[in-house]
Design a protein that fits this description.
This protein is mainly alpha-helical. It has 35 helices and two strands. Strands 1-2 form a two-stranded antiparallel sheet. A hairpin with a 5-residue loop joins strand 1 and strand 2. It starts with about 30 loop residues before the first helix and ends with a helix.
Length: about 675
């Protein structure tokens, strides 16, 4: 190896530079590498050859080798229980039970609290039919770890399979001394029931319900007695359970179960007494299921009055609790009043008192949003008095009291005025109804009030009054196109076309309208419907004096084409030509829309000459770029957009024509050089 001479600088070896640092087009993932290795069988290890043992000496050598391997693994890490289990399983496979037992015992010395180790050891003894060894093992296991339920289950199951019923019962008794979970008790009870030991099962239940004092266990105990025909004992169990829990720890499940038991014994009076006792002594929020069960019981075995009273009282209590918390909850007031009105026996005075209580809770803020639900309490009150109690005078008083209560200077409800007016109409008091509507319009003129009043007069066939109301309505809001249209529609229905035309003329001459396009269209359609072609054409041109919208021109062209005479196509073409001249200064999208409509027209009704003419007028679509500016005037980049160049504009602008000629000259030179 060459050594660097002193005084000379060391030479740095050259490193090849990577010219192309871009990622490869085909990327190889780790998944792909693993898949290829799997497909090519690169990591498959050949299976060890099978060893054939032919004499005892070879067998002894094989066993010695295997035992040495197991012992080495154990010596390396004696705390790994898996090595002990493999060792013992191998010894068992060699029918060396004594050696396997020795391995398990050594493993227990290492970790005597390993559950799997005890289970494997005992299962081996049972497989080898070593019953006494297995029994001793289970006894040692439950002594060391009495809280492991799996040991007790296996121990008792083994004794029962061996037919040792007394020994199995003794195992269960030892287990119960530790007060295990509920399933263990139930397993013990099922064991006794399999051998028809009813008295023993009852004694176990007696201990069970006090060890685990849960309501469900008491119910199971009572059902056990009922199932085996001991009705008095079952009833006594339920009574003891009620006494055990007392009034401080009452549970609805217990009383529901007790009542259903009595119901199954056809003791319906007993069941009813149980339900009533529980409902009287339990809080309402903890007795919802009890109410449901009581309701179902009454539906099955009670009379109709009892059923209705149960349901009504239950729901009324719920609503009253909600209203005590929030008396301004008007939806709950509605539910409560509906419940009372739909009852079998209508208590008019009680319902009136409830309505009075409800309407006494006036919204705190004088804002309409808070009064929307409240006002329906008054409306329902008035309808109840009129429809169900037939007390018309009281209904009138309710309407007047509500109207006096309303803060009309801030807001009003047109629905309330209209309902009152229609009520007076039903009472055949037209003068009072008109007076109420006039007062409403005078206090707070609203569109809904005017329309409701007009509809009322039209239904009464008072068309002169309706005309007067329309005039007042238009004086109040002359910009409302809907009112003008409804007024003209009324005159059309009455057959007075001149009056309707005059109304339309007044409407279109208004300086300000909310929907002028609908008004003009309706006016034009009115003239077309009555075959007034010249009037309709004149209206179109009057509209074009006010607006040059492309849709108006297109509609005019369609109108000219729809006349159907010999000059209709020529007239429509003239409209398109005139529109094209007028819309040159408008947006290019509107001109394009017009030319597309014109093109469709020519391809449908024109000839080759006119089609060629319109084809020459179609614009070219080009892509351009423009700057984007933010609200503060700074630049935010560029954006692309499409622009349209019309041949007529190119003829008027020589710069565009010169630019086009320059492009053609450049293209010609390029082709000439090639």
């Amino acid at each position: 190896m060459e050594q660097a001479q002193p005084g000379k600088p060391q030479r740095v070896p050259k490193v090849a530079k990577v010219k192309n640092k871009a990622p490869a087009e085909i990327q190889i993932t780790a998944e792909q590498l693993l898949r290829e290795a799997k497909e090519r069988d690169l990591e498959i290890v050949a299976a060890p050859p099978k060893q054939k043992i032919s004499d005892p000496e070879e067998l002894a050598a094989y066993r010695l080798k295997k035992r040495k391997g197991f012992e080495d693994n154990i010596r390396k890490n004696r705390m790994v229980i898996g090595n002990w289990l493999k060792y013992a399983a191998w010894e068992e496979s060699q029918t060396e039970i004594q050696r396997a037992r020795s391995v398990y015992e050594r493993a227990l010395d290492v970790d005597h609290r390993n559950i799997t180790l005890w289970l494997r050891y005992a299962e081996m003894e049972m497989r080898c039919r070593q019953v006494n060894h297995a029994r001793n093992l289970w006894d040692r296991a439950v002594t060391v770890m009495p809280r492991v339920n799996q040991f007790w289950y296996k121990y008792s199951y083994m004794e029962e399979m061996l037919g040792n019923v007394a020994g199995c019962r003794q195992v269960f008794e030892r287990w119960m001394e530790w007060h295990p979970h509920e399933q263990a008790w139930q397993t013990y009870i099922n064991f006794e029931l399999r051998y028809k030991e009813i008295d023993r099962a009852r004694s176990i239940y007696e201990r069970f319900v006090y060890t685990h004092p849960d309501v469900g266990h008491w119910i199971k105990y009572a059902r056990f007695e009922e199932k085996h025909g001991y009705i008095r004992s079952a009833r006594k169990v339920y009574e003891r359970a009620v006494e055990f829990y007392g009034e401080d720890f009452m549970d609805e499940k217990l009383f529901v179960g007790f009542a259903k038991f009595e119901e199954n014994q056809r003791e319906h009076e007993r069941a009813r007494v149980i339900y009533k006792y529980a409902l009287d002594n339990m809080s309402k929020d903890k007795s919802q299921d009890l109410y449901k069960a009581y309701t179902i019981h009454e539906k099955k075995y009670g009379d109709r009055t009892g059923i209705e009273s149960v349901i009504t009282s239950k729901r009324r209590l719920q609503y009253e609790e909600k209203l005590n918390e929030n008396p301004l909850d008007y939806d709950t007031w509605f539910d409560l009043l509906k419940l009372m009105e739909n009852a079998e026996e209508l208590d008019a005075e009680l319902i009136r008192d409830t309505y009075e209580k409800a309407i006494s809770h006036v919204p705190l803020a004088p804002e309409k949003i808070y009064w929307r639900r409240y006002i329906y309490l008054w409306i329902n009150y008035a309808l109840f008095e009129e429809m169900q109690l037939q007390d018309n005078e009281r209904a009138r008083q309710v309407y007047k009291a509500c109207l006096d209560l309303m803060p009309h200077k801030s807001f009003t409800f047109a629905k309330l005025w209209l309902l009152y007016a229609y009520f007076e109409v039903r009472m055949k008091n037209l003068q009072q109804a008109r007076k109420a509507m006039g007062t409403a319009i005078g206090i707070c003129p609203k569109d809904k009030l005017f329309r409701g009043y007009i509809d009322l007069e039209i239904q009464l066939r008072e068309f002169d009054r309706a005309r007067i109301l329309y005039q007042k309505f238009l004086e109040f809001g002359p910009e409302n196109c809907t009112t003008w249209l409804k007024f003209a529609e009324l005159e059309c229905l009455l057959g007075d076309l001149e009056r309707a035309r005059a109304i339309y003329e007044l409407a279109v001459n208004q300086p300000r309208l909310d929907m002028p396009e609908i008004l003009w269209k309706t006016y034009i359609d009115f003239e077309i419907e009555h075959s007034e072609t010249e009037r309709a054409r004149e209206l179109y041109y009057r509209l074009l004096e006010r607006t040059q919208h492309v849709k108006v021109w297109m509609s005019l062209a369609q109108f000219e084409l729809g006349i159907g005479d010999d000059n209709s196509i020529i007239g429509a073409r003239r409209v398109f030509e005139k529109a094209n001249e007028r819309l040159r200064s408008n947006e290019k999208e509107e001109r394009l829309m017009l030319l597309e409509a014109w093109k469709t027209f020519e391809y449908t009704n024109g000839n080759e000459v006119t089609q060629e003419t319109i084809h020459e007028k179609m614009p070219r679509k080009i892509k351009k770029r423009r700057k984007i500016e933010t609200a503060d005037g700074s630049e935010a980049g560029w954006e692309e957009y499409f622009d349209y160049i019309f041949p007529e504009d190119e003829a008027t602008k020589p710069n565009l024509k010169l630019l086009a000629m320059a492009k053609m000259w450049k293209k010609k030179n390029v082709t000439g050089t090639e």
